[in-house]
Each structure stands twice: as C-alpha cells, then as structure tokens.
Amino acid sequence: MPAGAQPPRLDRRPLDGRGEADYNHFVVQPAVNLTHHFLIAMPAMVDPNFARTLTYICEHNEQGALGIVVNRPLDMILETLFERIDIPLETTRFSALPVMFGGPVQTDRGFVLHRPLGKWQATLPVRDELGLTSSRDILQSVGSAGEPEEFIVTLGYAGWAAGQLEYELGQNAWLTVAADPRIIFDLSPEERLPAAMQLLGFDLANLSDVAGHA
C-alpha cells in the first residue's frame, strides 16, 4: 500500500459485474446503519466472491457501504507479503498469519483491520477502538514493534453503491448481526463464520433453512 495513501471510500460499482446500476429508488437513507455488523452470506448467494463468506462492515451510510471479508484466507502468509513489499518482519510470531481476501475491489492493495485504533496516516475509524488502515506505516509498526497486536491483513475490500446493500438485504442475500470483534481477532478464519452464526442462535449446517435477516 503506498505511503500516505488514503483509506478507500465507497466504491460506486455494483459487485455483481453487471456494470453501473441505480439502486437509489430502493432506499435513499439506510433504515438501519450496519456499521460494525457482520454480513453472513446466505446459501443462495451466487457471486463466487461472497459465497460462504463472513464480511465485517466498516462503513455504511447514504452513499453506500464498505466492508472486509474476514474468513477467506489467501494462499499467502504474512511473511511472504512483507518480503514482497520490502518491510522487515522482525516479530516472527506473526510470520505465519494468513493474508485474507478482503473483497473484489482493489485486490492489489493491502488493508489492515485492527484494534486499538491508534494513529496512522490513513485510517477509517469504525469504532473508538477499531479501525481500517491502508497506509504503509501500520505494517512497518507490525514488523518492527509487533503493534498493534490484534489485526488482520487483507488484499482488497468489498464495496456497495448507494442503496445496493439494502436491495441485497431485501433479496435475502445476507443475514446481519452486530459484530463481536473477538470473532475477528481471537478465532482462526475457518472458525469465524460458524461463530457469527452462533450469535444469531443458528448452526451453520442449518443456514439453508433460514430466510430474511436479523
């Protein structure tokens, strides 16, 4: 990620690859703010980018939504990424952590979801203690000082145009639930989706029987 790069703002392109679409007639102002919520993909999700995914929503407003997929590791570990971007990784306890597929937008850029919030060059604050950073300085800190201690690194992010996420929710594409950061930072990638389902009181095996959103 370039030094001084600004955090991504809301991507205007629908993620289904069908080109521009106007979702404004579905909703002008979000009825529910889903910032700091999980999106759980329903079994009928046909987009391969999001099938069986758990997405953490970092920002949601009348302009759209921005999130990070948190349960799909890439075939890359942190040590490899740091070598490619020429940052020394002196704190070896992080070297085997997986780099995650964060979403289909800007997959050539790195993003760090972390707590505490800290002070970095380009951070989108999500809550008082949690942020999404796209500047190189946070990776340099991870490499040299091991801080922040709680983080995941992703390539890419997920973006929804104005009204698009509300439309998809109306089509029963997602379940929603208030996020628990412990699921992101304390559990392995394969444990995160089942744990988020448990927040709703559902078992992952019974997801196909669930409709609507919480």
Outline of this structure?
By secondary structure, the chain is α+β, with helices and mostly antiparallel strands.
Molecular structure report:
This protein has 5 helices and 10 strands. It has 214 residues and is α+β, with helices and mostly antiparallel strands. The chain has a single domain, classed as VC0467-like, CATH 3.40.1740. β2 and β3 form a beta hairpin. The longest helix has 12 residues. It is globular.
State the low-pLDDT regions, or none. 1-29
Shape call:
globular
* Overall average residue pLDDT: 85
CATH topology: VC0467-like
CATH class: Alpha Beta
Helix content: 10-25%
Order of helices and strands: EEEEHEEEEHEHEHH
CATH architecture name:
3-Layer(aba) Sandwich
Q: Supply Rg.
A: 17 Å
Tell me the total number of β-strands: 10
Q: Kindly give the count of domains.
A: 1
Q: Treating each run of at least 4 consecutive H or I residues as one helix, how many helices?
A: 5
Derived from helix and strand composition plus strand pairing, the structural class reads alpha+beta
Task: Give the CATH H-level superfamily.
Answer: VC0467-like
Strand % is 25-35%
Major beta sheet, specifics? 10 strands, mixed
Beginning-to-end CA distance, first to last residue: 35 Å
